[in-house]
Amino acid sequence: MPIPIAGGWTREAGIRIEGTRDLDASKTQAPGVIARPGGGFRLFYTGVGPGRPYPECQGYILSAVSDDGLEFSVEPGIRLAPDPAVEYMSLRLLAPSIVQLADGRWRMYVEARGTSQQPPVITSAISDDQLQWRHEPGVRLSTSGGLGGPRLTQLPGGRCRLLACADDYGPVGRSGGLRNGKHIISALSDDGLEFVTEPGQRIRSGQAPWDAMGITAGQLLGPTGESTTDTDWTMIFSAWQDAPPGSVIPRHPSDPTGTDTPPDELDFAAASIASDIAGFRSRIFQATSPDGLSFGPSKCIVAGGGYDSDDIDAVHAEDMSVISLGDGRQRMYYAACDTTGRWRIASAVTSP
Fold first, then answer.
1. CA separation for the pair 93, 133 (Å, rounded)
2. What is this structure's pTM?
3. What domains sit in the chain, N to C, each tagged with a CATH number?
4. CB neighbours (10 Å) of residue 83?
5. Per-residue pLDDT tens over the stretch 192-232
6. pLDDT > 70? residue 261
7. DSSP string, 100-143
8. Do 81 and 53 meet the contact criterion of CB atoms below 8 Å apart?
9. Is 93 helix (H, G, I), strand (E, B) or coil?
């Protein structure tokens, strides 16, 4: 039975970004948007292609700019690349979340990956101009199972809350290979560098068939303050549904249950896409909370038409990044995958 789509968000026609060059021709996904100094938008995203900086590399952060938020021009070069000399970020960076600091600089939080046996972690980088980025030493947030999809929310009083999606492998741990879920957790910081994990989960996966495979990203939006009754926090998140019984699912290169294929034999993008379109679905949901910690029931707000559809997001809509447009509307950029396995960046917008 199709999942009902709630009102409030309208998918916008067209493609915001698609792979057109050696740096992103193989896979384009996991966007993060920020306002540009002087006006317009800069959209950071995860790319991989034959122009990767070293043979083993599986993904890095690229960027594109736009005056209207709809038509984007890609910028040359790589904004942030993994470091093969650092074990926890030797292969891939993805899912950027960018915030401006009080001193005028920008900080980017990313999911960093090494080999499949190494739990993904959240790291950060710093920039004076949104173009040249420097890795900051150390790990911002980690768990024994691994973390992904970071999204930072700045709170009143100067503190910030970092959301991330934590892999849950149960008491056996990651080495057992059987993931029980992927839940949104949160951590607080006074300086954006040292984080203390908050108890519990903000949203737990496995509540229904549509999120059986876990949650891949969650962004926390504060109350707009446009009315005395508008006091709720909103969580926008993406969740994966399992493939139907009997589906033949190729092993994803990031799956810790097997042995990593030697880098010179692995086409990471092709192998991951084969798994992506083996029957799985992902969609984007919304839930609300009076305190930003405990959330009520969710509703689906963005979804493609499924494997019989020609939508650009027919199979997957995930890893969204939301920005206020300053006119009462919000725009969401998200990773979209069609039935052929082509990943691109799409968008949706709210009404004024």
1. 13
2. 0.94
3. 9-350 (2.115.10.20)
4. 15
5. 999 999 999 999 999 999 999 999 999 999 986 554 457 79
6. no
7. E-TTS-EEEEEEEE-STTSPPEEEEEEESSSSSEEEPSS-SB--
8. yes
9. strand
